[in-house]
Structures are given as structure tokens and as C-alpha cells.
TrEMBL record:
Domain Centromere/kinetochore protein zw10 middle: 97-332
Location within or outside the cell: Chromosome, Centromere, Kinetochore; Cytoplasm, Cytoskeleton, Spindle; Endoplasmic reticulum membrane
Keywords: Acetylation, Cell cycle, Cell division, Centromere, Chromosome, Coiled coil, Cytoplasm, Cytoskeleton, Endoplasmic reticulum, ER-Golgi transport, Kinetochore, Membrane, Mitosis, Phosphoprotein, Protein transport, Transport
Domain Centromere/kinetochore protein zw10 C-terminal: 389-519
Chief location of this protein within or outside the cell: nucleus
Domain of life where this protein originates: Eukaryota
Entry GO CC: endoplasmic reticulum membrane; nucleus; RZZ complex; spindle
Name of the protein this chain belongs to: Centromere/kinetochore protein zw10 homolog
Quaternary structure annotation from Swiss-Prot or TrEMBL: Interacts with NBAS and KNTC1/ROD; the interactions are mutually exclusive and indicative for its association in two different vesicle tethering complexes. Component of the RZZ complex composed of KNTC1/ROD, ZW10 and ZWILCH. Component of the NRZ complex composed of NBAS, ZW10 and RINT1/TIP20L; NRZ associates with SNAREs STX18, USE1L, BNIP1/SEC20L and SEC22B (the assembly has been described as syntaxin 18 complex). Interacts directly with RINT1/TIP20L bound to BNIP1/SEC20L. Interacts with C19orf25 and ZWINT. Interacts with ZFYVE1.
Domain Centromere/kinetochore protein zw10 N-terminal: 1-39
Pfam families according to UniProt: ZW10_C, ZW10_C2, Zw10_middle, Zw10_N
Length: 696
């Protein structure tokens, strides 16, 4: 019995294994049959142009093949052939679907070379077929093709290609060209979208108009192409596909960036008084997004487009600041030599600010008045001159006057702006002056070094700016935002820098001119041996060259520098020449009578023509006053005149001029210098020895 039981168990095990093998083979054969049936039905449906059914059968065949490939231990050679067949048939249906798509959605485009011009945009058309679907699906005729693409998983790539064409040939040109208007033409079997051109608007396209036209295009697409309920199978679950949402995900980011950069950016106001009108643009943006959400192009979240429009105050401030800096830099790089005359009596265009107690409702006023007209009259009898704190008359670059006007107008704009905008505009004005400090000396460096007149104008420009910076912050302090009213609204800290900038440039030019004077005098052969005609001619030529240089400088600085600066500058340069001549002559060891006469003649030329270089004003008769005041500006003037007296005097006259160290000669020369001159001028006699003994 035990033996029979073992045999029965063995037979049962074998039969069970056989049954499992047969069941597996049967299931594989069943799947192969399903694959075969699906391919046959696919071919039939494809011939009948029932693309959705064909795609579904192809997907059924794909699932059957996937099941067969997942069976381990049954690596059938036929599976590779089936996989190849499936790939071939997939490409076949995609080809047919592509052909149908091109018939249903037709782009009529100009040659690619001319794709960016207005003419090419006007030649672009989009044709959508309106013949009903043979498969009887709801929606436009393209529905069956789109559903088939969805079943095959190719819908996204197809819509991506369509979206790129839509952006390039329809949506972006609509934003770029304000004259374009969309035109929809309905025919019996097709609807056509094209553009017509109207009279272009010279101003930038209004966002309201752009949104309206954009909405018209998307409504057209929604009605004739995208309003199709589609289904697809994803991980064995059926899911709804919303075409509008899918296309929106593809194109919205690029479209919204284009709308911002080419439409909203240009619509940002340049004046704070126009900010209130921008509410219309924000409202239009909201309506545009709402319409897109209703058509399911957008999801529920607020997009970057609306955020940008609502953040108009920040964008206005950024744009205004950028425009101000660009305008300022343009003025700084313009020519310095175009000048205007300013004087204490000239009208300085300052904005008239409202009374600080007048409330927060500010109105911009273009009225400008003289600063001194606003001054409070002191009751005390001793009154200051109305010009006490005025800038002296001089010439400045017209560009600098415009720059200062730009600063005042920007600060006036800040008084009527929001707190954040006010702060940005205030610091933009500070940046203007910092930019001037950095840009002008570098950009005009070569001209400022070579041309004395430009150096003088730049000096005036810097002093003019510094003069205004002293009170600029104070004038606006109580009109700006409360954040800036604690003392931060000031420009006084920049004043020393600008004064130093102007002085350093002018002093550098003065050093250049001093160097040229000394170089010319170096050719005078130390003023020695004047009885030699050649030496005398060389010295005379040097004197003439120096005088010519000073006269030329006097002309180029005339009516440019303030009178006091002009006189100090010319006096310093003339003093340089006189000091050098005095030093050279007092260093001579031997001066003959003829030498003395010729040296006197050269000195007399300097004394007679030197004052004539002082011509600060164009009116000749007004310059006499300054020519008579030469000793005030030329430190060595009296020293030079005393030297001339010594050259023509006898020993007794020199002793009298010394007057025991109390005379005019003693005020200008030291005993050593006088003794040296006496030894050079007179022979060694008892009278000379007696005279020398008195010089102490």
C-alpha cells in the first residue's frame, strides 16, 4: 500500500506540473491571439480612418506584448518580431495622424528668411478645418486626431510644436506690432485666422489693447481647436485631458515674459502724476487672466504677469531711477565747453515747494523764483547783502546746469511719490553726483589736462554743484518721506569732495602753466652777460614768450573764472615769473653798467606789460581796477620794483633805500642779497666797502 501511495503522489505531482505548463502555454497563446486580433482590428480601423479605434487597438496590442515580455522562463524568439511589428505599426499610425493633422491645422507662412518683418506677419495665416469627424466624436473635426495622439502618448509633443509656431507667428507679433489686428474669416469647411494692419500708433502699444487682441486669439483657438474632451490611460487609470490647460502650460511662461518685457515695461509711467491712471492697466490684466482661467488656459494661481502689473510703484521707481541715471550720464559725457553765464543776479530755476504745513496733498509746480526773493527780511537795521551767500559770477557748462535741474526735478518728483519710491529717487539723486565725481574727471581727462579753459570751467562746475549741495537736502527735507526726515536727507557730506575735485583739477593746470613759464625763462641764459647781443636777445625772447603765455591765459580765462579766482591765478603765475627773474639776477656775481641797463630794460617790460594780463572782464574799462591792484595779487611785485631801483641806483641811493634796515629795500631783500647785488654792480672801492658796512 505504501508503494502504491508513493506512485500515486508522484503521478499527481507530474500531472499538476503538466497542468501548470499547459495553463501557462494556454495563457501565452491567448495573449498572442489578443495581440494578433488587436493588430488585425487596428489595420481595419486604420483603413477606415477610424484613428481613435486604431490607436486603442494598438495600445491593446502593446499591453499584450508587455504581459508576454514579463513572463519569466518563456523567452520566445517571436516576441522580438512582435516588438518590431508594433514599432512599425506605431510609426505608421503616427505618420497617418500627422498627415491628417496637417490637413486639419494648416499654417500658411512666408519664406523663413523674412519671418520677422511686419509684411511677413501679414502674410501668415492659420487654417482650421471645420468638417465633422467621421468617428462622430463631439467637438471639432480635429478631435479624433487629437484623441488618437492622446491614446498614443504623443499629444504633448504635438501641442508643443503647435505652441511654438503659435508664439512665433501669431502671439509675439501681436505684442510687437501695435498696428496688427486679428481677423477671423469663416468659410463652409474652414475657419481662417489672419492679420490686418491699421494706422500704427506712434506711442507704445497699450496693454489694454494687447490683452483684448490676445483674448480674441485664444477664444478663437478654444472654440475651433481646444474645446475637446479627451481621455487617456495613465498607469491603468483613465484620466481627463484638458487641451487648453496643456497648451497653456507649454506657452504661458514664454508668453507672459514677452507681455511683461515688450508691453507692461513700456507702459510703466514716467511721472508719478500718471500712476493713478495705471489702475486701468491692472484691472485689464486681472480681466485677461480671469478670461484665460475661464477657458482653462490658466490654473487658479496668480501669475507673474498680474504680480508685475500690481507692483507698479516699485517698477515706476526702478524705471524712473534708471531714466534719471541714463539722462545724467548723457549730460556728463557731453561737451564741457558749451557754457552759460551765471551770476548772483541771474535767475536760478529752483522748484517752489509747498508749505510743509499744507498737508500731504502735493501738487507739482513748474514755477521758479529767485532764491533771494524767498528770504525773510531782517528787522535789524544792519542787513546782509542779498548776495552774501551767492556764487560769484562765472561760466559753467550748460550740461551741468541741466544736470542740477534734473536733480531738483527728481527730488520734486520724490515729494509726490510713495515712501519706497521717494527713498529710491532720493538716493538716485545722490548717485547722480557720485557718478559725476567718478565719470567726468575720467571721461574728459585728456582735455582737462591739455586745455586751460576746460580746466577752469570744470573748476566752476564743481564749485557750482557744491554750492547747491549745501542747501539741496535742507530745501526738500520736510517734503520727503518721514524716513528721510531724521537727518539722512542731506548732500552736505558730498560738498568737500566736489570742492576738492574742482581745486585739484585747476591746481594741476596751474602746475602745468608754471612749468611752461619756468621752461621759457630757462632759455634766458641766466640773464648773465647782457652786453652780449645774443644773450640779450635770448633773455628778451624769453620775457616776451612768458608775457604772451600770460596774455593768452588771461583771454581764455576771461569771463570764465570768478574775478577773485582769476586774479589770484594770474597773480600766482606772474609772481612765478618775477620770482624766477629776481632769483636769477640776484645770483649774478658780476653785472656791468651795460648789463644793468639791459636788465633794467627787461624788468621794465615786465612791470609795464605784466599788469595788462589782468583782464578778468570783457569790458576793458572795468579791468583797470584790477590792473592797478597787481601788488595785491603778486607777492613779489614790490621786490621786483626794488630790484629795478637797485639796477639804476648809485651806492648812496641804495644805502638810503636800506635806511638802516627800515627802508623799502630792507622789506624786500635780506642783507646778504643786497650785499651780493652791490658787489656784482660796483667795483671794489672804499666807498663800496663803506656802503657794505651799512647794510646789516
Amino acid at each position: 500500500v505504501q508503494r502504491d501511495l508513493d506512485v500515486a503522489v508522484t503521478e499527481f505531482t507530474e500531472l499538476k506540473q503538466q497542468l501548470e505548463r499547459d495553463t501557462l502555454v494556454l495563457s501565452i497563446l491567448k495573449k498572442l491571439q489578443e495581440f494578433d486580433t488587436a493588430i488585425k482590428e487596428y489595420n481595419t480601423a486604420l483603413l477606415e480612418k477610424k484613428y481613435v479605434a486604431a490607436a486603442q487597438q494598438l495600445e491593446k496590442a502593446r499591453r499584450s506584448l508587455k504581459t508576454l515580455e514579463s513572463r519569466k522562463g518563456f523567452e520566445l524568439k517571436i516576441l522580438k518580431a512582435l516588438g518590431t511589428e508594433l514599432t512599425v505599426q506605431t510609426q505608421n499610425i503616427l505618420y497617418h495622424l500627422g498627415e491628417e493633422w496637417q490637413k486639419l491645422v494648416v499654417w500658411r507662412l512666408p519664406p523663413s528668411k523674412a519671418s520677422s518683418s511686419l509684411e511677413s506677419v501679414l502674410a501668415s495665416e492659420l487654417h482650421l478645418c471645420t468638417v465633422p469627424s467621421e468617428e462622430g466624436l463631439a467637438g471639432p473635426p480635429v478631435a479624433s486626431v487629437l484623441q488618437a495622439f492622446a491614446v498614443l502618448g504623443e499629444l504633448h509633443s504635438k501641442l508643443k510644436t503647435f505652441g511654438q509656431l503659435l508664439l512665433k507667428h501669431i502671439l509675439k507679433p501681436l505684442i510687437s506690432y501695435s498696428s496688427l489686428r486679428p481677423l477671423v474669416e469663416e468659410q463652409s469647411d474652414v475657419v481662417i485666422l489672419r492679420f490686418k494692419s491699421e494706422e500704427p500708433n506712434l506711442d507704445n502699444t497699450s496693454p489694454v489693447e494687447v490683452f483684448e487682441k490676445m483674448k480674441q486669439i485664444l477664444e478663437f483657438l478654444h472654440k475651433y481647436l481646444l474645446n475637446v474632451p479627451l481621455e487617456c490611460v495613465d498607469d491603468k487609470k483613465e484620466c481627463k485631458v484638458i487641451l487648453s490647460e496643456l497648451l497653456g502650460d507649454i506657452i504661458w511662461e514664454e508668453l507672459s515674459d514677452c507681455l511683461i518685457q515688450n508691453c507692461l515695461v513700456n507702459s510703466i509711467p514716467t511721472n508719478s502724476s500718471k500712476l493713478e491712471q495705471y489702475v486701468e492697466v491692472i484691472k485689464s490684466t486681472e480681466e485677461f487672466e480671469t478670461a484665460l482661467k475661464n477657458m482653462q488656459f490658466l490654473k487658479g494661481d496668480t501669475t507673474n504677469l498680474l504680480k508685475y502689473a500690481r507692483n507698479v510703484n516699485s517698477h515706476f521707481a526702478n524705471k524712473k531711477c534708471q531714466d534719471v541715471i541714463v539722462a545724467a550720464r548723457k549730460l556728463m559725457t557731453s561737451e564741457i565747453h558749451n557754457t552759460v553765464k551765471i551770476s548772483p543776479d541771474s535767475s536760478v530755476a529752483l522748484p517752489r515747494l509747498p508749505d510743509p504745513r499744507a498737508g500731504d496733498h502735493l501738487k507739482m509746480e513748474k514755477t521758479s523764483k529767485l532764491l533771494h526773493n524767498e528770504m525773510v527780511i531782517l528787522e535789524n537795521e544792519s542787513k546782509l547783502s542779498q548776495h552774501t551767500f551767492s556764487l560769484p559770477a562765472c561760466r559753467i557748462s550748460s550740461s551741468v546746469e541741466e544736470l542740477m535741474d534734473l536733480a531738483y526735478q527728481t527730488l520734486l518728483e520724490a515729494t509726490a511719490s510713495t515712501d519706497q519710491c521717494c527713498i529710491q529717487l532720493f538716493y538716485s539723486v545722490r548717485n547722480i553726483f557720485q557718478l559725476f565725481y567718478d565719470v567726468v574727471p575720467t571721461y574728459h581727462k585728456e582735455n582737462l589736462q591739455k586745455l586751460p579753459q576746460l580746466a577752469a570751467i570744470h573748476h566752476n562746475n564743481c564749485m557750482y554743484i557744491a554750492h547747491h549741495l549745501l542747501t539741496l537736502g535742507h530745501q526738500f527735507r520736510y517734503r520727503l518721506t518721514s524716513i528721510l526726515c531724521d537727518g539722512t536727507a542731506t548732500f552736505v557730506d558730498m560738498v568737500p569732495g566736489f570742492r576738492r575735485l574742482g581745486m585739484e583739477c585747476f591746481l594741476a593746470q596751474m602746475r602745468v602753466q608754471k612749468g611752461e613759464i619756468l621752461e621759457r625763462l630757462s632759455s634766458a641764459r641766466n640773464f648773465s652777460n647782457m652786453d652780449d647781443e645774443e644773450n640779450y636777445c635770448a633773455a628778451n625772447k624769453a620775457i616776451r614768450q612768458v608775457l604772451h603765455q600770460l596774455k593768452r591765459l588771461g583771454k581764455v580765462w576771461q569771463d570764465v573764472l570768478p574775478v577773485n579766482v582769476y586774479c589770484k591765478a594770474m597773480g600766482t603765475l606772474l609772481n612765478t615769473a618775477l620770482t624766477e627773474i629776481v632769483t636769477r639776477i640776484t645770483a649774478l656775481e658780476d653785472i656791468s653798467a651795460e648789463d644793468a641797463d639791459r636788465l633794467y630794460s627787461l624788468c621794465r617790460t615786465m612791470v609795464e606789460e605784466g599788469p595788462q594780463v589782468f583782464t578778468p572782464l570783457p569790458e576793458e574799462d572795468k579791468n583797470k581796477k584790477y590792473q592797478e591792484e597787481v601788488p595785491v595779487y603778486v607777492q613779489k611785485w614790490m621786490t621786483f620794483k626794488e630790484l629795478m631801483i637797485i639796477l639804476q641806483a648809485n651806492l648812496q641811493e641804495i644805502v638810503d633805500q636800506w635806511a638802516d634796515g627800515k627802508g623799502p629795500l630792507a622789506a624786500e631783500f635780506s642783507p646778504v642779497e643786497v650785499k651780493s647785488l652791490i658787489r656784482a654792480l660796483f667795483q671794489n672801492t672804499e666807498r663800496r666797502a663803506a656802503a657794505l658796512a651799512k647794510i646789516k
